[in-house]
Amino acid sequence: MKKICAMLLAVIMVLSLAACSSSKTSESISTEGKTDEKTTEAKSEKSEEKTTEGKSAAVGDDGKILVGVAWKTLQEQRWVDELDIVKQVCDEMGVEMIYQVSDNDTQKMIGQIENMLTQGIDILICCPSELEAMANIYQEVHDAGVLVCNYEMCYGDVYIDICGGLDNYEVGKAITKPLADAKISGDVGFIGGDASGGTTQFDFMKGMKDSLADCDVNEIGEQWSTMWDAALAQGFAENWITQYGDSLAAICPMNDGMAAGVIKALESAGLAGKVLVCGQDAELTACQRIVEGTQYSTVYKNSAEAARKVVECTIKLYKEELTEEDYGGATALSSDGSKVPFAAVDPIIVTKDNLDEVIIDGGVYTHEEVYGN
Question: What is the Cα–Cα distance from 149 to 134, expressed in whole angstroms?
């Protein structure tokens, strides 16, 4: 009997201990759950705190308009100058600006724009090297409620709210117009910039050829220089010199940088100044070559005026303050079929005859810089 009672007592004690253990486990689980909940709330608060701090630290969160600028290159001086003007105008108009330079790498530029979207830009001003490739990202930017400005003329390939600067076809015509005015005749070679630039480069090239349409010229070739490489342009010129020699009337590179390469080839062959060479951008070295007689012409695109006009008009459009008088009434085409403002600036042809007036009197370069005295 005592054994039975002892056994029953042992069973009762085991059950009692099991119950206590179960209760503690349950209590522990409940407590851990509460701890997790508190931890989650704490994490949430920290996360909110970090997000808020990130926004506070972000440019433009002080209520100012935030402009994101995607710039294709700083390789040529004109792009350095124009970006400086963009910064200056943004400052003058009381807006904040962030910018990225893609070094003519379109995929890099797209990633940079996506990054700027995460920073909360209100306006995108983009100067691309390959316009057609921007179609999807421009649409994405628009869908995010951001105003889209392309820093060149558009013909419906991409979505834009405004564009400005120069009409590339008209610039192309201006590049070769001095040669047409000189009534050149003979063999002519054309050197374009990076063909990956698409419409922009093809508009330049079409304009260049159209200006010479009434001249008695024989097109010997159309070459395209990757990354606007002067060394490649020099190589193209050397090949034409070897094949055509004295029958060459002109070699027409699309910018002054490539013109430098072409002229090196002509100098080596003793043809500098005999074969006419044009260009665009009015670089200092190009102006010096015009004075020397090795380059026939260039095209001056007023960087300050173009950059200022594009940025001012874009910000005014965002503020719903833009008037036709501000942008001159010209229009471009967006991919949705709508006509949008085009803040146009006219190109200016520069030759030896008007270089002093346009370049020196216009304050682009000093007399000493151009002439060396």
Answer: 12
